[in-house]
Amino acid sequence: MLADSSVPLQVGPPMPWAALAGQLAEFNPYAVIQVGLVVLLVTPVVRLGVGALSSLLKGELGYALVSFAALGLILVSVFLVQRR
Amino acid sequence: MLAPLVIVLIALGLLAGTFGALVGLGGSIILVPVLTLMGIFPVRSAIGAGLLCVIASSSAAAGVYVRRGWVDVRLGMLLELGTVAGAVAGAVVATLLPEAWLKALFGVFLLGAAVLMWRRPPSEAEEVGDTVPEYHARNYPLGLGVSTAAGGVSGLLGIGGGPIQVPLMYLAMDVPLKIAAATSNFIMGVTAAAGALLYYGRGEVIVALTGPLVLGVFLGAQLGSRLARRVQSRVIQLLLLVILLGLGVLMLGEAAGYTAPWRGAR
């Protein structure tokens, strides 16, 4: 029932990056939601990077290495999935 | 005006977020099967949405935990390496498996979680008080191994992995329960993000539907953590058990090709 309702929702994959800026300028609500979701997605990754850097600055090389490894794994996997 | 479906999704997120915070789960363990069974989301999009909801509920709880000093940041940093590796692997495997397999795996996971819930003794006594006892975490290699598996389940099924991480730290690594819960919440954000980024990159996150859901979960998680001390936990545990069992059976049914009666013909 819900899936059939004639709600004008843009149901589909996220907009490509190139289109996002233009849609934001036109105040497309879906572009705003998409930016919100991307911010949510990126926040923990930024936290991981900040943690890694602060361990490095404190001289805790082991912890820094572990966090940079996790960060590297995320970045490589994102890079590979974007290229497909 | 908001579309009716958007309101339904916010309400669903709110319910799952509140209930999740009451029982100490992220809420995605309920949301992903409900979304799949309602037929609004294809199963992989439901998993992607579930992971984003995990990030939202983990962020909602993080402030409280960090302020109380319950997060063991160093332990979290170490275990994160395992969960991130697992989450990336899980999110990749999810693309290789047919949808029916993902539904069946989720069904089995739900039934397994229900069994664990049934056997777990109530742990209310240990939650009282804000003081943190002295402890020394041990069994790091085991912790890292199990964390990798927990991350794999997270990336594959779209859940946070708390039901695996918390008992691991508490029972196998000698970490006090509230430290284990807070540290698991800390790890969960990064784990879910590692998986969710891949679902997003593959175009499986439906922005228009996931946005309202995430909003509901975030608000619900805040509400639930305030209600937590006022509600009788035995009733909630029993309710959770029934929900897990019901959803598990329905997911297995879906996987086997039976359609839920409210969905009509496919």
Summarize this structure as a short list of keywords or feature phrases.
heterodimer, A: 84 residues, mainly alpha, 3 helices, elongated, disordered N terminus, B: 266 residues, 11 helices, 77% helix
Describe the protein.
The complex is a heterodimer of chains A (84) and B (266). Chain A is an all-alpha fold and 84 residues long. Chain A has a domain at 30-84. Helix content of chain A is 73%, strand content 0%. In chain A, helix 2 runs antiparallel to helix 3. The longest helix of chain A is centred in the middle third of the chain and has 29 residues, at 29-57. The radius of gyration of chain A is 18 Å and the shape is elongated. Chain A starts with 16 loop residues before the first helix and ends with a helix. With 266 residues, chain B is an all-alpha fold. Chain B has one domain. In chain B, 77% of the residues lie in helices and 0% in strands. Chain B has helices spanning 4-23, 28-38, 43-68, 73-96, 99-119, 124-127, 140-157, 162-172, 177-201, 207-227, 233-255. In chain B, helix 7 (140-157) packs antiparallel against helix 8 (162-172). Chain B is globular, with a radius of gyration of 18 Å. The model of chain B has no long low-confidence stretch (mean pLDDT 87). At the A-B interface, helix 2 and helix 3 of A face helix 1, helix 3, helix 4, helix 9 and helix 10 of B.
